[in-house]
Amino acid sequence: MSSWVSVIIPNLNSLVIDRTLAALRDQRFSLARVEILVVGLDEPRLVRTDRLVRMISTETPVPPAVARNVGVQEAKGDLLCFIDADCIPHQDWLENLLSPYNNPNVTVVGGGVAFPTDGYWRLADNVATFYPYLHTSLPGTRDQLPTLNLSFRREVWDEVGIFDERYPYPAGEDADWSTRARLAGHQLYFEPRATVTHCPARATLRDLWQHAVRFGQYSVKVDKRYQARLALPFVLRHWLLVLLATPIMAAFVTGRVLFNRYLWRYAYTLPAVYIAKAGWCWGASKRLRGQVTWYCSQVGSVPGQLR
Length: 307
Prior knowledge:
The structure is a single chain. This protein is an alpha/beta fold and about 300 residues long. The chain folds into two domains: about 5-205, Spore Coat Polysaccharide Biosynthesis Protein SpsA, Chain A, CATH 3.90.550; about 205-290, no CATH class. It has helices at about 15-25, 65-75, 95-100, 120-130, 155-160, 175-185, 205-215, 240-260, 270-290; strands at about 5-10, 35-40, 55, 80-85, 85-90, 110-115, 140, 150-155, 190-200. Strand 1, helix 1 (about 15-25) and strand 2 form a beta-alpha-beta unit. The chain is globular and about 55 Å long.
């Protein structure tokens, strides 16, 4: 592949970033035309820069959407790849993530997620969040792709726009961007062999609950910008309906996890997964009730909004 490849990593003092970079340096893929941009803060000083790796300091903490946008502005790649600072790419990650681009019709590719099994709450959080993107799943198209393992051609970025910088946390900005890309006519291709192992710091019930609530608050499924264009259940149109339906909705999604044959080994996490899905409903109801007012009321006033 003769195109330049840019790997962009938003970083907010990750204690795993040195392992992320070591695994990237050890890729089977030729790194002759690859650059790695770490954007954000590195107060633990774990980022070792060289010809391959460049650190771009934001001087103050910024949301991951902002860090990724800064990275793209600085990147020279024709292919833009994203991985998070708490992910360890497998040795063939880049090779498998980029191989679909040999087909000129492929424009967006995401990869699979593997989980460490130590730590009950961290494992449950991973299962609840990323079960549709298991590295053991079948390849194919998806409605959304997470940015912890994502790539696309630069021309897609030029068409779809930036990551919406109004998302204050690492929750929702990737679903928003990939949904906009899909609505713009791009197929979101999922290649599970392009695997990263996700190692978040979330280690308690409180961590799991807060993460799930944020995912509900910033979900495209309760974003009024998308209600007219996505086939969304009626129950997701009113905060009270979401609250009343929480036990059923949480049980339904937990059941989907249970009946995923690749997740049977994690069946003991199902009580925590149910709690996480209930947290998602709680966050979604807050958004629908107007208690989450992070976004501008003027549609189109901020770059990255739905066109």
